[in-house]
Amino acid sequence: MATMAVAEQKQVETEALITGAEAMAVACKLADVDVVTAYPIRPYDTVMQYITQLNADGEMDCEFIVAEGEHSQFEIVKHASVCGARVFCGSSGVGWMYAMEALTVTPALRVPMIAMVGNRALDDPGAFGTEHNDALAVRDLGWLLTWVDSGQECLDTTLIAYRVAEDPRMLVPCAISCDGAFLTHSQSLIKIPSAEQVKKFLPPYDRGNLLMHPDNVISIAPQVNEDWVMEVRKQNFAVTERSMDVIREAYTDFEKIFGRKYGNPFFEEFMTEDADVVLLGMGTMSMPMHVAIRDLRKKGIKVGFVRLRWFRPFPAEELAKCLSRFKAVGVVDRDFSFGSPYLSGVVATEVRTALYPGKGPKPPVLGFICGLGGREVTLQDVKTMTDKTFEAAEGKSVPLTQWIGLRD
Amino acid sequence: MGQLFAIEIIYRGVFQKTLAKNICRGIVLAAHNEGKPGLSFGRYGDSPERNGIPAKSFAIVATDDETLEKGMAQYEPKQTDVTVVLDDSLCKGLESWGWYGVQTVTEHLKPGATLIVASLEQPTTLLKALHTHDKPYKLGVLRGVTSFSGMWVFKDDHTDVRILGAIVKALPELAKFSSLEKFISEKLKNTLKVTSARTAFDKFSTIQVKPGTGNAEKLEHFDLIGSSAMRLGVSIPGQGQGGPYPDPVTKQAGGFRPVRNDKLKKATTRTLRPVVNFETCTKCTLCWLNCPDGSFDVTPDGTYDANLEACCGCAICEAVCPVPDCIRMVPETAFTDSASQWEAFRKDKAAYKATLNKLVAAPSAERSHGYRFKGQYKDQAAKALEIAQQG
Question: What stretch of H or E contains B217?
């Protein structure tokens, strides 16, 4: 029976050579998204271009609105979403920051918008390369935040994001972060599921009594005083408490329907079983990590890699349990957090916080700032960071934050 | 560990972007017919492209997924099995606005790798422009005009599949011709294109190029300074004001030459350059006023000399010049240096005039948007297709 089910899946799946951004556009088509808003900025714009093409080719049927700036872009989908439309939008770098006011209001209004963030360095200096500070700017606001590392994961995560964000227990926005260039501009062979499979996985968007409609007259976002704000915040806090279970359910169903396994939804472990130390990071740095770690393993150096997939919610307990198995952890941040504890990056700070209350062993956590502005994380960089993490494992005194691959 | 193949396509921005992308897709999909995984991508730093600016696209293919990951772990391939040049004016080298100076097109060729140039010239002619490489390589010419295939209204002249035919001939381990044929018939659904690919496959041949053969021009090298040596505040010091400069014959200073940034220079960005007839120039100032890059020097004579380290070849000067043929845009392939035209004129007027007459005698090329070609509209496509079918 099981083999038959797999054979059926193969028949309905097709394959296409498309970029990660294009894969997200295809996911929007499969999810039958109703309203898409756009404002061009690299590398996000690759997704809006492909959605336009799918619309023009008659493959997709959505309202496609080009706004006059990112702020309006996110405002328009916010309003469409409360009126019951499934929506998609996105931006990059300073475009995302320009939308900030609109981004802050969506979680409280319970708007399940899905946004693609094509990660890009914030100006100045003007640059196109990947840096994660853009998406991370909403990390405290109630957005769900996830990082993907392949074109296939772009497509799959978009479907999962709709399922999670629109779940009646959730109704919050979700940003999917794709590293500029590596995912947005490279074409790989991607398996595209059938519309029927997607229908099975993703129920229609239903806001229930939060729908703004003449048959369901409601008023949204009144001005309030101090009597109300904390209670509203607590509602979003309650969502974050539930979110890990909802995400886990979505991945379990995804695997059942589409046959692709992601294992632990929150982080992915690579060669960690017998590792002495691990490096940890987000996004496409997994490629050089895998290649360099395979090389290092051949020399008997027991290092592994943990790729954090969901940053919000942050899987603190699970991750702490995982990391306590190792003698030291090197967190590779493709971001900065100037003035933060030990002057580390955002992820290193979060990982240390996650470890602190745990009862298990607390390995030293080194922070590495690497690959900013799209600079290549080289195999040599991975080797250097591994060496330094081993030094910490041996109890040597090592600076807690180090910049790797910098011309000093 | 399996085998990893890397192919790089060097092309002129915007005009040839779709063509380069289609070739890279063809490589990956043809190899995929043999079960090989692959990836195709444009050079991120090249985009957004400007008209005609040199740019690159890549395809990497491997015999297994783990080996492919090795290729994906790099920002872009540093060692290629095949490099393709889609516009022979790029044989002089390429510069993108994201780089520092000119790179040679041969730079990334592995020992024994193949360089394919789409051109109507002979390999020996192209070798005059191609910079020397420290490894032996093979050079093959795919006969054809510079193609805009796949772009907007331009007719498909089959350059995509012809290049693919030449690539699988040069690198049989990548994919067999039958796998390419399967891709063309199934995905492009065009039997004429199969013939064009086969003709290219059958006729493509190469010559051996020994290390050190070719253009010996030394290219500028740039050392990037470190964080502590850089100025603060993302600031760049301004340039001096400039002033008079000497006449090479009389040594008398005059005119005006602005100080230009000695690092940010134009070179192969241009496909055309303005050639000035200093004898018919009326000193009207229009070229100097209208040049968007401020690339004209006011000579001690009061005429205007296009400084070729500043000129991007946009042809606005030619358009605004009121004197017939006083400024004429000429394809870059006619030149080997970027020296001052006015100095050449001052040193030897007769020789300058002879060169000028030769250059201007040729009818002005049909062009589009500052590019040295017009592209394959309906009437141009016939010739290209004839070459495609017959080789």
Answer: none
Statement: residue A229 has pLDDT above 70: yes
**Are domains A2-258 and A267-404 of this chain identical in fold?**
yes
Per-domain residue ranges for chain B?
A: 4-218, 243-361
Confidence (pLDDT) at B365: 66
Please report, in angstroms and rounded to a whole number, the separation of the first and last CA atoms in chain A.
61
Return the SS3 of A190.
strand
Rg (CA), chain A: 21
- Dist. CA A112–CA A246, nearest whole Å: 14
**Mean predicted confidence (pLDDT) in A144-168:** 98
B157 Cβ neighbours under 8 A, 6+ residues apart: B144, B145, B147, B149, B376, B381, B384, B385, B388
| pLDDT at res. B150 | 85
Residues B329-348 pLDDT 10s: 998 888 888 899 999 999 99
CA-wise closest residue to A316 among A268, A363, A356: A356
pLDDT in tens, A284-328: 999 999 999 999 999 999 999 999 999 999 999 999 999 999 999
- pLDDT over threshold 90, residue A114: yes
Where does the pLDDT of residue A1 fall: very low under 50, low under 70, confident under 90, or very high at 90 and above?
very low
- Size (chain A), residues: 408
ipTM of the complex: 0.91
Q: Where are the alpha helices (DSSP H) in chain B?
A: 17-32, 65-72, 123-129, 159-170, 177-183, 191-203, 286-290, 316-320, 341-347, 349-361, 378-390
pLDDT at B10 > cutoff 90: yes
| Through-space distance between the first and last CA atoms of chain B, rounded to whole angstroms | 38
pLDDT for B334 equals: 87
Give the whole-angstrom CA distance, residue B17 versus residue A290. Answer: 32
B window 32-71, beta carbon within 8 A of A = 32, 37-42, 44-45, 47-48, 66, 69-70
User: Is B162 within 8 Å of chain A by CB?
Assistant: no
Residues of B in contact with A130 (CB under 8 A): none
Q: Measured between alpha carbons, how far is B15 from B368 in angstroms, rounded to an integer?
A: 10
* Per-residue pLDDT at A107: 97
- pLDDT value of position A2: 46
Map out the domains of chain A as residue ranges. Answer: 2-258, 267-404
pLDDT, tens digit, for every residue of A80-91?
999 999 999 999
User: Are the beta carbons of B69 and A291 separated by less than 8 Å?
Assistant: yes
Q: Which CATH number fits domain B4-218: 1.20.210.10, 1.20.120.520, 3.40.920.10, 3.40.50.720?
A: 3.40.920.10
Whole-number Å distance between alpha carbons of B259 and B307: 12
- Residues A22 and A46 sit within 8 Å (Cβ to Cβ): yes
Q: What is the CATH T-level fold of the domain B243-361, as seen in this structure?
A: Alpha-Beta Plaits (3.30.70)
| CB-closest option in B69, B75, B228 to A376 | B75
| CB half-sphere exposure, A57, CA atoms < 13 A | 10
Note whether B120 and B43 are within 8 A (CB). Answer: no
Residue keyed to tokens 């934050």: A401
CA R_g for chain B? 23
Chain B residues whose beta carbon lies within 8 Å of the beta carbon of residue A181:
41, 44, 75
- pLDDT at position B154 over 90: no
CB B276 within 8 A of CB B326: yes
Partner residue opposite A408 with nearest CB, options B66, B72, B227: B227
B53-79 burial, b if ≥16 CB within 10 A, otherwise e? bbbbbbbbbbbeeebbbbbbbbbbbee
- List the CATH code of the domain at A267-404: 3.40.50.920
So what's the pLDDT on residue B155?
79
- Asked whether B149 and B160 are in contact (CB, 8 A), the reply is yes
**Beta-carbon-side half-sphere exposure of residue A281 (alpha carbons within 13 Å):** 30
- Domain covering A2-258 in this structure, CATH number: 3.40.50.970
- What's the number of CA atoms in the CB half-sphere (13 Å) around residue A19? 27
